[in-house]
Specification:
- This protein is mainly alpha-helical.
- It has one domain.
- It is about 65% helix and about 5% strand.
- It contains nine helices and two strands.
- A two-stranded antiparallel ribbon has the order 1-2.
- A hairpin with a 2-residue loop joins β1 and β2.
- α5 runs antiparallel to α7 and α7 packs antiparallel against α8.
- The longest helix is centred in the C-terminal third of the chain and has 27 residues.
Length: about 240
């Protein structure tokens, strides 16, 4: 890997801009460990992702702005490794992080907890049924779409989508999990568990192994989040009306 050269005083501004731009290149190495080349982009994408997920598991509202930073980094990473559905998913996440931030901070009166934030709650059976149907149909349709992107837009997508159906499953389920997380539905953590297991395997195969490790860690955080939200839900019965 070619060593990055920082400009010295008096060098043209364009050289400095190129050096900064290289930080966001998946090929620009931050460090090398156990035979794996870690890029700046992957390293900081993982750190912000772990931080946002841990804060969500704690039902902390600051998880949303941290998540916005993670989304921006992940969008560019997925583009460079040709995981296009995951790339498009980050646009959705950018919007929903803003919506989630607002929703948790502005509950209706009967939805507010003692911190004046949105309470956690369980999904209704009809919501669960719709979720299963949307997950199946969405994965099938999006997987077929992603598999043809390189044919329809070769100037933008120079290589075929990698594992379009597995990648599409991650995207569809992540959308559903995010929607239910905005509403603070406890079942969102079960959906996230399916996403994290799939992503752990997919990203390992694609060679972005720090991201794979991140999603393996996510599975533990998801379990914690599920149990924490259930405890919080049960605590409401002991609180004065």
């Amino acid at each position: 890997m070619e060593r990055r050269q920082y400009p010295t005083p008096g060098e043209p501004a364009g050289q400095k801009q190129i050096a900064l731009k290289n930080i966001f290149d998946i090929q620009t190495e931050l460090f090398h460990v156990l035979g794996y080349s870690m890029s700046y982009l992957e390293f900081f994408g993982v750190l912000t992702g772990l931080a946002a997920t841990w804060l969500s598991a704690r039902a902390h509202i600051i998880s949303w702005p941290v998540g916005i930073v993670n989304v921006l980094l992940s969008f560019w990473l997925y583009y460079q490794v040709h995981l296009y559905p995951d790339m498009f998913l980050q646009i959705f996440f950018f919007i929903t992080n803003i919506l989630g931030w607002w929703r948790w901070a502005h509950p209706r009166t009967f939805e507010a907890d003692t911190k004046k934030q949105l309470k956690v709650s369980f999904m209704k059976p009809a919501q669960l049924t719709r979720t299963i149907l949307i997950a199946g149909a969405g994965t099938f349709l999006l997987g077929n779409f992603a598999g043809r992107l390189h044919e329809w837009l070769p100037n933008i997508f120079s290589a075929p989508s990698s594992f379009p159906f597995a990648d599409s499953f991650i995207m569809i389920m992540s959308i559903l999990a995010t929607f239910y997380m905005i509403q603070k539905k406890i079942e969102c953590w079960i959906i996230w568990m399916l996403v994290d297991i799939t992503a752990t395997v997919l990203y390992y195969v694609k060679g972005i192994r720090f991201y794979s490790l991140e999603y393996l860690v996510f599975t533990g955080i998801v379990l914690f989040g599920f149990l924490h939200w259930v405890r919080e839900y049960r605590s409401y019965s002991s609180q004065p009306a």
